[in-house]
Amino acid sequence: MRPFAYEAAADADGAVAALARGTAAARYLGGGTNLVDLMRLGVEQPELLVDVTRLAHGAIEPLDGGGLRIGAEVRNSDCAADRAVRERFPVLAQALLAGASGQLRNLATTAGNLLQRTRCAYFQDVSKPCNKRAVGSGCPAIEGDHRNLAILGHSEACVATHPSDMAVALAALGARVVVRGPGGERTIAMPGLHRLPGDEPERDTVLEHGDLITAVEVPGLPWATRSRYRKVRDRASFAFAVVSVAAALDVDEAGGTVRDARLALGGVAHVPWRALAAEDALRGAPATRESFEAAAEAELAAAEPLRDNAFKVSLAHNLIVRTLLELAGA
Amino acid sequence: MMAATPAAATPAAATPAAAPPATGAIGVPLARIEAREKVTGAARYAYEHQPDEVAYATAVPATIARGRISALDAAAAMEVPGVLAVLWHATAPRLQPVADGELAVLQSGRVAYRGQFVALVVAETLEAAREAERLVAIGYEPEEHDSLLREDHPGLYAPETVNPSFPAATSDGDVEAGLRAAAVAIDKTYRTPALHNNAMEPHATVALWDGDDLTCWDSNQGAPAHRATLAQVFGLDPARVRVISPHVGGGFGSKGSPRPQLVLAALAARVVARPVKLAVTRRQMWAVTGYRTPTIQRLRLGADAEGRLTAIAHDVVEQTSTVREFAEQTAVATRMMYAAPNRSTSHRLVALDVPTPSWMRAPGECPGMFALESAVDELAIAAGIDPIELRVRNEPEVDPHSGHRFSSRGLIACLREGAERFGWAGRDPAPGVRREGCRLVGTGVAASTYPVYRRGAQAFARAEPGGGFTVGVGAADIGTGARTALTQIAADALGAGVDEVRVELGDSALPRAPVAGGSAGTASWGTAVVKACRALRERLDGEHGGVVPPDGLRADADSEQDVADQEPMARHAFGAQFAEVKVDLDTGETEVSRLLGVFGVGRIVNPRTARSQLVGGMTMGMGMALLEESVLDPQFGDYVNHDLAGYHVACNADVRDIQAHWIDEEDPHLNPMGSKGIGEIGIVGTAAAIANAVHHATGIRVRELPIRLDDLLWAEAADGS
Ligand SMILES: Cc1cc2nc3c(=O)[nH]c(=O)nc-3n(C[C@H](O)[C@H](O)[C@H](O)COP(=O)(O)OP(=O)(O)OC[C@H]3O[C@@H](n4cnc5c(N)ncnc54)[C@H](O)[C@@H]3O)c2cc1C
Predict the structure, then answer these.
(1) Whole-angstrom Cα distance, residue A184 to residue A237?
(2) Based on the domain organization, do B133 and B96 belong to the same domain?
(3) Which residues of B touch A306 (CB under 8 A)?
(4) Full-model pTM
């Protein structure tokens, strides 16, 4: 294993400063469940790790308007178990519990989960080309094994997907990511944190080197009590999504029309895919199977499946309709 | 939920010189003797041995699928502090030739598959070795490679035999005529993917030289056989080599024959003149530890209007490597399963630029019975006959292939008892009509079988002066409970309590015994153990009046002749597996809501460990049906999903209600215990039972494993809703 230095930062400013001192190969260390794996595989070769699990970002606090501020270090299992999260944003608790395993969730942090890297087999194998890992080396996944890769928003350079479940729920909820960088603090609205691969697939997000995530703010959304996360995977547990849906639905009970909706897809793109076209189609439409089908079609019209993953388009379609029907009936 | 029927503790009759069990130790659900050691971490596995001065090795895999190594620059690697050596074919000591080319490690610059070990780094620490491994710069002369199995591959050939020594092709009667005469016939092609064993403990060796004496702590399925190979490779008298393997964390066949790390560790230890430890990493397991070949199987069945088979033809295409021929015996079970006047089977191989396939739980029977038992289901549907009834109608009187009579054949009893327990009666055969909410429900059945093998073995039994008995046999306990079962067998033969008997195994210094393989371990070792124990008991009682002499008393036994003398017969275990599945209409997700197996496996030595074996096999069969697949990327020639996040084995949440039962089966023609092997039969037939249930649920027949939601997304309830 390649030698590296380790520092435990005492506070956010210290962490940012420590990373700024390091080279481009310095990394923040959360639970380490993704980063350390990638170091073992030689995909990540940091010279410096700055441990950020002992800053003061480990709490979940209420925000005005019914929202929640989730500290960057909050462990995934703690977040999923939090009463306010479960009551106000069931979709988020469900998404967290659908991910990884109990042991991993006990270690994984909010920030680390958002920034985990793709599970594309070529990205993880340093003996093979990959534009995301080795700029300009090529993308063998396009011709190779891509059954579980992207159907939306991919490019000639990269067809990887973002693997996080939690991020899909946060994208649906329009969460804001609070970032402390060398230049101060700013917030980035989800799904804007992650970016499509384009011709720079080496960049997963809009963050700059040295940016530290300190919290995620989920704005109040009273009708998100009627929300859910549904994940389809190849194995009943402990598997990444083939396709997942995070959805919340606000139905005018009297008129039976959709007042508002939130919808995001996982397992389909380089980003947690906020389904804005579907949301538009749903707003004001009757809460019926026909509207839900139309919304799914509106969103998936843009899908460009690869040789072996056309099934994901049908799957995403069925899953959107099914989840909305369940929410409408709930 | 699990359940098991109690074993019938009936004594084996008619075995020559068989004394009836004296203590009733056989048939008792004794807990694993080493359970406490294992759960407390006291049990040491191979890699955990820590001789003084031990150095750490890591193996460097080839990154091309075919070609030559033209150069290797070790300068940067050697500069990593603590690195002791970098070995490759230009610098490694010469080895003696062996039949298995996979063991000719670092002997030539030829690369036969991606991931083949081509260099070795040895260092003071594992961290230094891994860092240096990354810095070894290898120059290759790559050649075009060909790694994809196809049924029309021009390189297909018929091997002389298939494993272990069956004819590659058989033909009785006239299949074409039988098919022409059939009232119903099917002609379908089934495919199974490459599958990897993935035992929890990786293949690992700690090697130590003392002059010309070599000791290896190694994770394997048979210490004596591994010793023999080491002696051969290093040109040593076998008496100078010792292989020690008291605890092994699973093998499933992949540790049945020596793997490259065994030779590499010993070679490295010789070069650096220190003990060396080497483990295969999880990822490397996809290249160097063997796997089940992918198969392409054409099944043709014909039957008359009553469902009696007129013809059975099973033609198999599968792969091997350019390093060594490994010919999976995929169609062999078809030769004896069902009666038909016209039968033929064939196997063809193509040697590709891929790792060499090897043993994986129920080699041959497992993939072959997926195809045969799916085809039988298709035939039953075509003939409009219940699939259990169809099987009953084709029950042979004697082994159709050899003409031998069966020592016992429990297939129909297993089907009947399974049908009863599962609730098969009244099943509506129409596919795609049962709805439960958003899911389609279906049930399926398939037969299981596995041959009953037995090999010669040696054992000793010793009465200790301080009381109690020690029994020694070069057996292997790969997590199956063999140590426990042998303790029960020995206690019975000695007329002693299980707590008076200590069994020593997993050491080549013990009497020579065959590997844990072919589900023959308990039968083979047990035969020798019983013989030694009875001899000891006889001498103790006859010559010493039952009093142990001051130096103790030892009896040795060899069962080679007893095994050779056994009457030629068709000896097989049979079973029936039933599955209920629920397939989500919107997502194609399949849940196996119930899986129930009934097996005719002779006398059960230990119901607890036996149930674990059967349930474990069935669970692995469920993985084969729905999850497991090693995905070959022809661009690179390797299996790309080479970790446990990419290669899915069944997890707890996949297993709902699984039950293993057995029928009372007395078979006097087997061995002193009256037992049949139980390690492999559980995986045979499971995938077909599930595929048949999926068809019953959805109307979709999936002939290519694994069955994925991709295949089922277009399922529609036949009632149109
Ligand atoms: C076998 C397995 C199965 C899994 N299955 C799933 C699944 O089904 N669904 C799912 O969603 N996930 C799954 N995961 C992934 C898991 O959720 C992630 O590994 C985990 O969330 C990462 O969190 P962490 O704190 O350990 O991150 P780390 O590994 O510590 O870090 C990940 C990245 O985030 C960066 N980082 C960490 N903290 C900060 C910060 N405060 N500011 C800026 N950057 C930071 C690190 O530098 C690194 O680049 C699985 C993982 C494994 C190993």
Answers:
(1) 41
(2) yes
(3) none
(4) 0.96
Q: Is A80 in the pocket of ligand 1 (CB under 6 A)?
A: no
Superfamily of domain A223-328 in the CATH hierarchy: CO dehydrogenase flavoprotein, C-terminal domain (3.30.390.50)
The number of folded domains in chain B is 3
Consecutive H or E run containing B130: helix B126-135
Q: Is there a single domain that holds both residue B488 and residue B593?
A: no
Chain-chain contact of A322 with B438 (C-beta, under 8 angstroms): yes
Q: B118 with B138: CB under 8 angstroms?
A: yes
Task: For residue B622, tell me if it sits in a domain.
Answer: yes
Q: Same domain, yes or no, for B602 and B702?
A: yes
Residue B437 CB contacts under 8 Å (≥ 6 apart), including other chains: none
* Mean pLDDT value of segment A122-145: 98
B169-192 burial by CB neighbour count: b if 16+ within 10 A, else e? bbeeeebeebbeebebbbebbbbb
DSSP code at position B18: P
At residue B180, φ and ψ (nearest 5 deg) are -65, -35
pLDDT at residue B270 is higher than 60: yes
Q: Indicate which atom in ligand 1 lies nearest the CA of residue A211.
A: 43
Mean pLDDT of A91-98: 98
The answer on B398 and B260 residing in a single domain is no
- How close B63 gets to chain A, by Cα (Å)? 6
Give the structural domain span for B260.
Answer: 53-144+198-288
Pick among A34, A39, A118, A127 to test the B interface (most B CBs inside 10 A): A127
Is B69 contained in some domain? yes
CA of A100 to the centre of ligand 1 (A): 10
- Does B187 map to a domain? no
Are B449 and B475 contained in the same domain? no
Handedness of CA B271, B275, B281, B287 (dihedral sign): positive
User: A129: pLDDT confidence band, cut at 50, 70 and 90?
Assistant: very high
Calculate the alpha carbon distances from B719 to B431, B695, B698, B699, B700 in Å.
10, 15, 11, 12, 15
Helix%, strand%, coil% for chain B, nearest 5: 25, 25, 50
Instruction: Kindly state the tokens that stand for B434.
Output: 């049962």
Interface check for B641 against chain A (CB to CB < 8 A): the answer is: yes
Query: For residue B207, what are the β-bridge partners?
Result: B216, B276
Mutate to test the pocket of ligand 1, among A35, A204, A232 (most ligand atoms within 8 A of CB): A35
B638 and B689 assigned to the same domain: yes
Q: What is the pLDDT of residue B715?
A: 66
Render pLDDT for B172-196 as a digit per residue (tens, 0 to 9): 999 999 999 999 999 999 999 999 9
Q: Strands A227-232 and A60-62: what pairing? A: unpaired
Beta bridge partners of B238: none
| Residues B654 and B592 sit within 8 Å (Cβ to Cβ) | yes
Q: Is residue B229 part of a domain?
A: yes
> What rounded mean pLDDT belongs to chain B?
95
Helix (H) or strand (E) holding B712: helix B709-712
Domain match, B442 and B481 both: no
Residues B642, B604 within the same domain: yes
CB distance A127–B63 less than 8 Å? yes
Question: What's the pLDDT tens digit per position in B218-267?
Answer: 999 999 999 999 999 999 999 999 999 999 999 999 999 999 999 999 99
Show which of B564, B583, B616 is a domain's final residue. Answer: B564
Tell me, what CATH number does B229's domain have? 3.30.365.10
**Catalytic (active-site) positions of B:** 680
Helix B607-626, helix B686-698: angle, nearest 10: 50
| Per-residue model confidence as pLDDT tens digits over A179-218 | 999 889 999 999 999 999 999 999 999 999 999 999 999 9
Residue B204 to residue B255: CA distance in whole angstroms: 10
Ligand 1 contact via A53 beta carbon (within 6 Å): no
- Report ipTM (2 d.p.): 0.96
A134 lines ligand 1 (CB under 6 A): no
